[in-house]
C-alpha cells in the first residue's frame, strides 16, 4: 500500500525544545470573574509530587521559563515548595495572578519569581467589581505596589465592554502602581472551553456595534498621546497589535473579518493542567497524557497529529484566537518570554 503523504505529515514534527511551559497550579480561584468558570467548578490542585515527576521531561526538552497560572496559583498550599524545587533546577519562574493575596505573599513571591503579571480589569472599584465579582480593587492595587518594590510586575487587562473606555486610565494606573508594563487582550468569546468554562458566555462581554467606533477613536488617541509608552514598551503591544483588538470586536459585531492569526505556540510551549493533561495551548485540549512523562506526552502520535492539524489551519479555535503567540527561532530565550515580549507586530 502506498503511503499517504498527508498522514505522514500529520505523524511528523517531534518537539526537541520546549522553552515555555505553563503549569495550572490549581483549577480553583478566589475571584468571581464573569469571563471564567474556574471559581464555580474548580477543585483540583497540582501536587508537588506531580511536578517532581515532570522534572526529567522538562530537562530533556530544554525548558527555560515556567509560568504559574490556573485558577489562582497562590491558593495552592504547595506553591512555595513547587516554586522552590523548580527554581533549584534553574528554571525562570513567572507568576500570573489575580493579585488578591499578592500583598500577603509579596516577599516570598519575589524570592522565587523573575516576573509577576497581575490581572486587573478595572481602574476603579466599580468596574473591577462588575468584572471580577469582588470588592477588591484596593486590595489588588496594594498587592501590585508591594510586589513592584521587589520584583518586575506587569498588569494584564482583558478588554471588554465594561472597561474598554478606561484603556488610557489603565496606562496611568499602571504607572502610579509602580508596575513596569501594561498589556491588553480582547475578551475571548469564541472558544467555549477556555478558562474552565462549562457554561455559555456571560451576556454583554463583547463590544456592541455602537461601541466599535468609540474603541477605534480611543486607540487612535492612545497612539497619539502615548507614543513614548509604545516606544519604551511600557505598553507591551504595538499600536498595530492593539488595532487588532478593534478588528476582533468589529468582526464579533459582524462589521468585518476577524484579524488573521499568526501563532506557533504549540511548537514552542505547552500547557499542563492541574489534572495532568498536556495541551498545545490555552484553548485547544490535548490527548490524554502519556504516563511515561512529559516528553512522551508532547511527542505522542496523537499530539504530533494535533500540532500538524493546527499548523495546517484545521482547528476552528485558531481562527478567532485572542491570545496568539509567535516567536521566531532566534527569540525563544527566557528574556523573550518574561514580561511578555512583543509579538505579531
Descriptive account of the structure:
The protein is globular, with a radius of gyration of 20 Å. By secondary structure, it is of the alpha/beta class. The protein is built from 15 helices and 8 strands. It has helices at 5-10, 38-41, 48-60, 79-88, 102-112, 125-132, 137-148, 167-177, 212-225, 227-232, 239-252, 265-268, 294-298, 301-311, 316-319, and strands at 20-24, 65-69, 92-97, 115-119, 153-159, 181-186, 269-272, 278-279. Helix 5 (102-112) packs parallel to helix 7. It has an 8-stranded mixed β-sheet with strand order 6-5-4-3-2-1-7-8. The longest helix is centred in the middle third of the chain and has 14 residues, at 212-225. Residues 1-11 and 341-345 have low confidence and may be disordered.
Amino acid at each position: 500500500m502506498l503511503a499517504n503523504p498527508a498522514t505522514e505529515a500529520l505523524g511528523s514534527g517531534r518537539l526537541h525544545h520546549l522553552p515555555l511551559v505553563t503549569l495550572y497550579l490549581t483549577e480553583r480561584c478566589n475571584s468571581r470573574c464573569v469571563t471564567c468558570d474556574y471559581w464555580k467548578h474548580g477543585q483540583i490542585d497540582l501536587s508537588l509530587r506531580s511536578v517532581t515527576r515532570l522534572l526529567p521531561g522538562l530537562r530533556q526538552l530544554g525548558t527555560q521559563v515556567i509560568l504559574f497560572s490556573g485558577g489562582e496559583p497562590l491558593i495552592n498550599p504547595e506553591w512555595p515548595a513547587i516554586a522552590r524545587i523548580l527554581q533549584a533546577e534553574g528554571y525562570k519562574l513567572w507568576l500570573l495572578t489575580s493579585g488578591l493575596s499578592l500583598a500577603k505573599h509579596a516577599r516570598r513571591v519575589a524570592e522565587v519569581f523573575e516576573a509577576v503579571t497581575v490581572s486587573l480589569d478595572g481602574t476603579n472599584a466599580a468596574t473591577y467589581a462588575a468584572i471580577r465579582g469582588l470588592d477588591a480593587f484596593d486590595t489588588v492595587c496594594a498587592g501590585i505596589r508591594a510586589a513592584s518594590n521587589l520584583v518586575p510586575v506587569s498588569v494584564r487587562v482583558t478588554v471588554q465592554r465594561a472597561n474598554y473606555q478606561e484603556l488610557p486610565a489603565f496606562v496611568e494606573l499602571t504607572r502610579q502602581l509602580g508596575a513596569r508594563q501594561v498589556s491588553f487582550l480582547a475578551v475571548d468569546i469564541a472558544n467555549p472551553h477556555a478558562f474552565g468554562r462549562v457554561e455559555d458566555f456571560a451576556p454583554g462581554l463583547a463590544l456592541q456595534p455602537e461601541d466599535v467606533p468609540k474603541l477605534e477613536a480611543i486607540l487612535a488617541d492612545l497612539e497619539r498621546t502615548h507614543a513614548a509608552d509604545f516606544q519604551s514598551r511600557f505598553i507591551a503591544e504595538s499600536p498595530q497589535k492593539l488595532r487588532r483588538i478593534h478588528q476582533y470586536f468589529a468582526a464579533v459585531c459582524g462589521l468585518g473579518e476577524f484579524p488573521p492569526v499568526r501563532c506557533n505556540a504549540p511548537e514552542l510551549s505547552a500547557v499542563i493542567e492541574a489534572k495532568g493533561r498536556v495541551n498545545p495551548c490555552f484553548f485547544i485540549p490535548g490527548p490524554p497524557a502519556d504516563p511515561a512523562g512529559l516528553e512522551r506526552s508532547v511527542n505522542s502520535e496523537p499530539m504530533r497529529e494535533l500540532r500538524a492539524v493546527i499548523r495546517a489551519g484545521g482547528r476552528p479555535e485558531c481562527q478567532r484566537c485572542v491570545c496568539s503567540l509567535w516567536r521566531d527561532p532566534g527569540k525563544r530565550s527566557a528574556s523573550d518570554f518574561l514580561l511578555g515580549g512583543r509579538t505579531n507586530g
